[in-house]
Amino acid sequence: MIKTVAIVEDDIDQRENYADALVQHGYNVVTYANRRTAFAGMQAQMPDLAILDIMLEDEMDGGFDLCRDLRNIAPRLPIIFLTTRDSDIDRVSGLRLDAWDYLTKPLNMQFLAVRINSLFRIVDSLNNKPTETSEEIESDDVLRRGSLFIDPNSMIISWKEEPLSLTLTEFWLIEAMARRPNQVKSYDNLMQITRQSYVERNTINGYIRRIRNKFKEIDNQFDRIETVFGVGYKWKSNRT
Amino acid sequence: MSKSVRKGLSIRAKLTLVALLLLLIPLMSYIYVRDMKLFLIKGQENALSLTARAVSTVLHDRPELFDKENDRSQTEPEDSDIYVVPLASYIRLDGKIDDWGDQISQASSITESQGDDKKSQIKHLLGYRGSFLYAMFDVTDENLVFRGKEFLRTDNADHIRMTIQNANQPAKRYVFTARESGPMSIYLVDREWAYPITGKPNTEIRAHITATDTGYLVEMRIPRFLVPANARIQMQLVDVDDSEERAIKSLVSTTATSDNDDFGRILLQTPEIDKILKALNRSDTRIWVLDANKRVRTVVGNLSSKPLGTPIAKPEKPLEQIRYYYDRGLRYIFNLILEQPHQQLSDLGNDTETRSDQVLESALQGQSVTDRRPSLDKQTVIIMAANPIWSGDSVLGSVVVEQSSDEVLSQQRRALENVISVTLLVLIVVLSSILFFASRLTIRIRRLRDAADNAIDRHGRIKQQQLEAEARAGDEIGDLSRGVTDMLSRLSQYTHYLKGLPDTLSHEVSNPLNVVNSSLHNLSTEYPDARHSKYFQRAQNGLNRIRSILTNLTEAANLEQAMEAETFTLFDLVKLVRNYVEGYQSSNPNKSFEFKTLTKSLIIDGTPDHIAQMLDKLVDNAMDFALPETDISIRIRRDDEYALVDVINEGSELPEGMQERIFEPMVSLGRKDAQKSKLGMGLYVVKLIANYHGGRVSARNLRTRKGVIFTVWLPIAGGFQEPMKVPPKL
Q1: Which ranges of B254-293 would DSSP assign to H, the alpha helix?
Q2: CA closest to B616 among chain A residues
Q3: How does pLDDT run across A178-230, given as a tens digit for each residue?
Q4: Taking CB atoms and an 8 Å limit, are B576 and A106 in contact across chains?
Q5: Which among B503, B507, B547 is the nearest to A106, CB-wise?
Q6: CA A129, CA B406: separation in Å to the nearest integer?
Q7: Distance, in angstroms, between A138 CA and closest chain B CA?
C-alpha cells in the first residue's frame, strides 16, 4: 500500500523539490501552499503523514495552527515540522502540539526519506503490523538499562517507567549512547546519528541539553549523560 | 563608562541644613530685642526724669524743709555736730563694708601721729537706717591686742569707748571689746572705764570686729531709742599696743568734741522730707534728696529687683517633666547669651562716684539731667535722673532718682525667651517633619534605584520591563519610574530587534539554500552520474560553507538564549580543562597539546558546557594560527579572586591595535584555510561566555617568542561578590 505524504510549504521550489524526492522514494505526495487549502484538502482526504512548514505565506505560526487543527480531526497523524526556525521556543511549541519530529532546513533529502520511513515503521509497530527492518536501527531488541527503557520499534523511551516525549533525532541520540554505555560518542558520531545535512557541535549540544531537560522533568537527579569535553558525550552506566 | 561620583550629602542632610536657616529667626529676634532694650532704657530714663521732676516740684520753694530741723545747715556747721548719713540699706555686721553703699565715700578720716613716725589712721562713718544707727571704724593699728582671757578689766586691750548722755540723766559709758575677730562684747562700765558695772554684756547694741592686714575693722549697730533726738554721744578709740604691759598708748576721739567738752550732738535727717517721700518708697527705685552742700538729706527705696525665676519644683507628671526640663534647658541657653538681671545690687565703688557727682553737679547748677552708670560689679546698668529743687532763683538742693535697668533686662529676657522657645519648638517640628519627609523621599528613591538596578541583570539583559516601584506615584518620582519603564521597554524592543536580526537573516537565507540543496539532491537522483561530478561535490561544499556561516551568525544570539536557559553549577575548572585537553588531543592526534596547571582545583560557578564551548573557540583559533610542529599549550593559574586560563600558540602576532578589537563580532584576521569560513564570531563567542560568567578575556603577543596568548579571567566561586568587580587589566 502506497503511503500518502502531505507537504505544506509556501515556497514552490522547495515544495516541488520535496515532492519530487519523496515520489522518487515511492510515496504518494500531495502538496499545499497555505494553511486553508491544506486543511481543506486534508480534511477531505487524510494523508498518512504531514510535513509542515511553520511560516505559511502571511501567517507567522500557520504551521502550528494547522497542526492544532489537524490534531483535532486526526489525533494519531504523524506530523513533521520542517522549518528554518531553530529556537528552543519553536521546538517546544512544536512538540507540545504532538509533532513527531522537528527538523531544520536545509535538510538532506536522503535523510528526510529515512525519517519518513522510520516514522511509518513506528506507526506500523503501534498498529501491531509486521514491519520491515531498517538498516539504520542497530537492533530491534528492547533495551533496558536500570531505569532506562528503550523500545526501538515503537520508538518509546521511558525513564523510571515514565515515557519521555522525544523527537526522532532525540530518540536516536539517546539510543546510540545507551547502546554503548560508558563509551564516548564523539561529536562526529552524533552528527551522523542526527541524520541531518550539516550539524555543528553547537547543534549537538543543544540536542543534549534538551534531552537532559526532558529527563530532569521526570527525575531531577538525572545525570547519566556525561559531557566529555572536547570530544562528545557518553551514557554513564549504573554504578553496580 | 561610569564616571567617578563625588561623594555628596544625602538629601536628608541637605534638607536639614536648609531647615537650620530657621535658626536665623532667634538671631533676628535677638537683634530686635537688643534694639528694643535701648528703646526701653530710653523710656525708663524719661520716666525717671519725670519722677525726679515730680519729686523736686513737690519740694520747690520749701526751704523750711531743709532748715527746720537743722537751722545750722545754712550757716557754718558746729564742730561738735555729728553728722549721720542715711544708708541705702541695712548693714550686716560681718566685717565687710560693701553693704555701706556710696556713703562709704563720706567716711571721715582722722590721722593721728604717734611717736616713732608711726601714723595711725582711722576712717569712720556713722549712718542710720530705719530704727538703727550704724557706725564703722577702719583702723590702722600695728599691734592689735585682744582682751586677755584672764583679765576682767576692760581697758587693757584695744577697745572702743562710747558715751551717751541724755538730757538730765547721767552719762552711760559703754566699752566695746573682743577676745578675737567676730562679735564684740559690749559692757556698761564705771567712770574709770576699768570694770563693767554688771557682769552681763549689753545685748541691745551689737558690734563686730575683724582683723585686717593693716589693723582692724569694726561695724556696730545701736538702736535709735538709746540715742534720742537731743542726746549727745562721744566715741573714742583706745589703742593698746603692748600685750604684756597692756598700757593705754593713745586715745582718739572720733566724734568731734567742742572746746566746752560737750559731746557731739547727733544730727539726723529731716523727718518732713521723709514723710513727703514715704509715699515714693519703692523697692526698685531709690530716691535721694540732697541739699546744696551735697549732703544727703534723705534716701528712700531700694535698688533691688523682684526675685526672678524662682526655681520650679520638679513636677510629678511626665508631660510636665518634659516642660520642666525644656524650661531648664532654655534657661541654661539664655544664661549663656543674655545679660542677667540681678536681684541684689551692689553698686558702690569709686568708679561710680564721679558720674553721680556729675549728675549731681549739673542738677545743683539748675539742669535736669539723666545719665547711666554701671553698677560696681559691672553686671547691670543703673539709670539716674537728677532734677534741681528750686527756691525762687536759687537751688536748694537736688533730687536724684536711681533705678536699675534690671526691669528692662528681664523684659528683654522674657521677650527673647518667648521667641526662642517658640522658634525652638517650630524648629523641632519643622526639622522632624523634614527628616520624615526626606527619609520617605530617600526610601522611595532608593526603592526606585533598586528596582531600576534589578531590571537589568549583571549581564546587561533586561529582566523586567515594568518597574513596580513608585509606578503609581503622582509626583516626579512616579514620573521617573514611568520614564524608566518607558525607557526599558524601548530598549527591550531594540534589543529584541537586534537579537532577532541574525535569526531573520539566517531564516531568509535558509530558504533559498534549501532550494539549492534539495535541487542538487534531486539532480543527483535524476542524473545519478552527476553525483560523481567534481562540480557537484564543490556545490555541496559551498552549501555546507553557507550553512556554517549561518550557524555561526546565529550562534552568538542563540548562545545568549541558551545560557539563559542554563542554571549555574559549581564545578572544578582544572578538572574540566584537563579532561577537555585530553579529549581534544584524542580527537586531534596530529596536533600536540600541552596542559599545565599551578593549582589542584579551582571551583567556579558557571555552565561547564559553555566553558567547553569557549575552549573550543580558543583552541580552534589557536590551531588556525599555530605554526606546524608547534605545541598549543593551555595553562591554568590563579590570580587573587580569578581563575585564569591561558591558551598559547606560536605563530603570527596580533597586529597593532587588534588586541581589543579582535573580540568584537565580525572581526577576523584573515584565514589560512580558504575552505574554512572565517566570520570572526568565534572570539566574540569567547567574550560573551567569559562576560556571562562575570569574567573577561584578553589577547596579547608573547614577549619571548612569536606567538599569541589568550587569557580568560573567570571569577572563583565564593570570591565573587555583587557588584561585579572588574578584573585587573594586564
Answers
A1: 271-278
A2: A230
A3: 888 888 888 888 888 887 766 777 778 888 888 888 888 888 888 888 888 77
A4: no
A5: B547
A6: 125
A7: 25
